[in-house]
UniProtKB/TrEMBL annotation:
<protein>
    <submittedName>
        <fullName>Uncharacterized protein</fullName>
    </submittedName>
</protein>
<feature type="region of interest" description="Disordered">
    <location>
        <begin position="169"/>
        <end position="188"/>
    </location>
</feature>
<feature type="compositionally biased region" description="Polar residues">
    <location>
        <begin position="172"/>
        <end position="185"/>
    </location>
</feature>
<feature type="region of interest" description="Disordered">
    <location>
        <begin position="226"/>
        <end position="245"/>
    </location>
</feature>
Length: 421
């Protein structure tokens, strides 16, 4: 199976997956690492776990896969899954590296029928830098959640022998195991400049929680119910939105949710590779913060989204976040401006034009693609969230216009995920 099959590249797992599907996948590949757990370098993480597994004659199974908790999930879902895989799943004894909840750091290593005499935390006690007291902690001097699992597996396979400070520092400071700098909550986050948010008419309106949604309800008639003068229905094309020949980054609305997910995963992998290849000294700290936060947010959104029609708005959000990171990674003109997608449908690519839309007594100035800039209002086809234009919903995507209104989309998305998890 390949990435084109949907789900986890190389495993063919779809979302949401099941213990039986995971057991089947593990028989052909004992190391399953979804990009959500890949620290922006999924292949390197897989290779790292493979190298660790080669240290022992015991079986090692890695299951870093987003899964929905079943109705019968107990208080220790990691061990429950490991016991199921080793028993009913037919995999037998081994070390099971389990994490099915991206971003929450609840992964564990379950030793089923193999030596389990060492406590990794006891071995690493005192090795982490004491930066809390000095107020300098930014999250970058500790292993990431995935890195911690790799480090704990390393300790367990060695039975604690020979693991020292240099080994700890390897997991805490080196790619792909190290944790990126902590993202800053947008509640305290300051926009890069006073003009970061768009003004409507002569009134500066900061589009915050709910404000964009309330305002954009006035333009909901851009959908199929649009009317021309005289009350006649506007002439509308019946075919789906085509690929945009002037924008090679455009994603067709004809893609199925699974195909869209695969497209996002492919772009996220490409961003991860570009990020890993870039010398961190080549970009300033603010740019790296934008890149790392956008990648983290994209991974978490993708982990929570499925591949059904109702998941399309979130999949598009993950696409925009991925492209936010890619745009910031480009050297170009030392660009500091954030990525702006086409407001009407972010699948169209970057908003390279601007368009004034009358909204009551004011005018809404939005970024859009070249085709949307030329279309009549009655012919615009906004991205839909189920049966309504996305901006008519009360979601983080509506409140931010997928980044059309704000400079800190990744931070706002992470805040939203933190509040709703």
């Amino acid at each position: 199976m390949t990435a084109e099959d949907g789900g986890i590249p190389g495993a063919g797992l779809t979302y949401p997956t099941s213990p039986d599907a995971v057991a089947d996948a593990l028989t052909s590949d004992p190391i399953l690492v979804d990009p959500m757990f890949g620290n922006g370098a999924t292949e390197a993480v897989r290779d790292g776990f493979a190298d660790l597994a080669a240290q022992t004659d015991h079986a090692v199974y890695v299951v870093l896969v987003p899964m929905e908790a079943g109705d019968a999930a107990g208080s220790d879902p990691g061990r429950d899954l490991a016991l199921y895989l080793s028993g009913a799943g037919g995999l037998g004894p081994g070390y099971y590296v389990i994490d099915t909840d991206a971003g929450n750091g609840v992964g564990s290593i379950e030793a089923i029928g193999v030596p389990d005499d060492v406590s990794p935390s006891a071995v690493t006690d005192g090795m982490a830098p004491d930066t809390y007291a000095s107020g300098t902690y930014d999250g970058s001097v500790l292993p990431s959640d995935t890195g911690r699992l790799a480090m704990d597996l390393d300790i367990m396979l060695r039975q604690g022998e020979g693991f020292d400070q240099d080994d700890y520092d390897h997991y805490a400071q080196s790619s792909p195991w190290a944790s990126p700098p902590n993202w800053e909550s947008s509640y305290d986050h300051q926009p890069p400049d006073p003009g970061a948010y768009w003004a409507f008419g002569t009134t500066a309106l900061v589009v915050g929680a709910g404000a964009a949604w309330i305002l954009l309800r006035h333009v909901a008639t851009w959908g199929p119910a649009s009317k021309q003068a005289g009350g006649r229905s506007a002439a509308r094309p019946t075919e789906a939105w085509p690929e945009l020949p002037t924008n090679p980054a455009a994603v067709s609305a004809t893609l199925t949710p699974r195909e869209l997910r695969t497209r996002v995963e492919s772009e996220l992998t490409a961003v991860a590779e570009a990020r890993a290849a870039r010398d961190r000294a080549s970009l300033d700290a603010a740019r790296w913060s934008r890149i790392d936060t956008a990648v983290e947010a994209a991974r978490l959104v993708l982990a929570r989204a499925g591949d059904r029609d109702r998941d399309v708005p979130d999949l598009v959000g993950a696409l925009v976040l991925t492209r936010t990171a890619a745009y910031a990674l480009e050297d170009g003109r030392g660009r500091q401006a954030p990525y702006r997608p086409c407001f009407f449908d972010p699948r169209h690519g970057r908003g390279v034009k601007r368009r004034d839309i009358p909204v009551g007594d004011v005018t809404l100035d939005v970024a859009c693609c070249s085709l949307c800039a030329r279309r009549r209002p009655a012919d615009l086809l906004p991205l839909r969230d189920r049966r309504r234009p996305y901006y008519e919903r009360d979601t983080v995507w509506a409140r931010t216009g997928y980044g059309a209104f704000v400079d800190d989309l990744p931070f706002q998305v992470l805040d939203e995920l933190r509040e709703t998890r």
